Amino acid sequence: AAAPLVGVFGGGVAGLACARALGEGGVRAVVLERGRSVGGRASTRFAPPEYSEPRWDHGCQFVSAKSARFSSTCERLLEAGALAEWEGTFGTLDSRHDRFVEDVKRKRRLVGGATGAMADLCAQLLHEAEERGASIVTRAELLGVAAPDGAGAGWEARVRRNGATEAMRFDALVATDRAMAPVLEAAAPDIAGSMRAAAQGAAPSFALMLELATPLEGAPDGIFVAENPVLSWLSKESSKPKRRAGRDGEGAELWTAHSSAEFAKLVVQEHGMTARGTEAHDAALEHVTSEMLAAVREVTQAAGWGKLDLLTPPSAHRWGNAFPGPCADAAVAERRVASSPCGTLVACGDWAAPEGQQGRVEAAYLSGEAAAGALLASLATAGAGAKL
Ligand SMILES: Cc1cc2nc3c(=O)[nH]c(=O)nc-3n(C[C@H](O)[C@H](O)[C@H](O)COP(=O)(O)OP(=O)(O)OC[C@H]3O[C@@H](n4cnc5c(N)ncnc54)[C@H](O)[C@@H]3O)c2cc1C
């Protein structure tokens, strides 16, 4: 019999870590990602042409490891050149007193190593998964799931691809995004419930991407902004390894700003979760751009780093489900995976983690591996495939 085939929905860190670990266990995975490339919240915004400047890591800023397991993963990715250390000056700007306090404790902050962009991380995870037999389909969105009918036909996933809907069959399924809860409701209500619970305390976030004509003199490289109603973080993209300033030798620095949680919540309350490509969404982003730009101008000038001198108009991005809330199901948090009673539909992601560990690349990676471990055990028990 052929090796079992697993459909992994979502090509972020969790989905790719899962596909890689399934491959290690001799199981083929097909990663199906709704977007046009892998990465999810650990991705990079490019202005065309791709892989050249200007680029902004508009989601995840840097990767750090707390557990021994993820530390060894980071070592592997450093060795492969997919991650590199972001060396620079980091600290906190108290914007009420316009005072910057540099971090004295040295912490290892890892960013993209191949091209200096966060997208390098998922590009490498995809490469490693493909080396282990996985394949990827982009622009493929999971719309619905039907449970196995007992005749050995496996799970049926309804997938939208190239504007058409098709049915795909898999021996097992992995769902990696809390937004998939409604899609799983009918076939796996328990899993949908766990995902919905984590989505309840979730927080949105906005990123503002800036291209400057002249540098912010003396500004540090990574700045946590405290006591500010609009901002939480500023990063000098062009200080990351292998990065240079603007396009074609023009431009001096690229910066990314992240909103405060309160500001993002207020914007979403006022404008709603507007759909991309609509006038309402453009209006919301215009409002965000103007408010965040004013706040960046104010804090950088007050801190003594000079006037903001824009080379190009800034742009904003909304992360609707930026950070998950606490995982309400203690067993799911502990195991880092939610499983259906039959064990062949599992859900993972940065939301399936113990209290205080959610919402980080480390949590996503460990959850992806846990999902693969749970599936490998279930498929072995079910005897689905001669290879197991
Ligand atoms: C602004 C911001 C800053 C951050 N900073 C840091 C940081 O400094 N350090 C850190 O460790 N972490 C940080 N994080 C968190 C980190 O980015 C995430 O924890 C991690 O990337 C989550 O990976 P994931 O695979 O669980 O989810 P995701 O990356 O969200 O991946 C889920 C994927 O599923 C896809 N998908 C959704 N629905 C469907 C569907 N129906 N069909 C098919 N595909 C679908 C999505 O397109 C997405 O690609 C930050 C996040 C944000 C938003």
From TrEMBL:
Gene3D superfamilies: 3.90.660.10, FAD/NAD(P)-binding domain (3.50.50.60). It comes from Prasinoderma coloniale. The lineage of its organism: Eukaryota, Viridiplantae, Prasinodermophyta, Prasinodermophyceae, Prasinodermales. InterPro entries: FAD/NAD-bd_sf. This is Amine oxidase domain-containing protein. It comes from the Eukaryota.
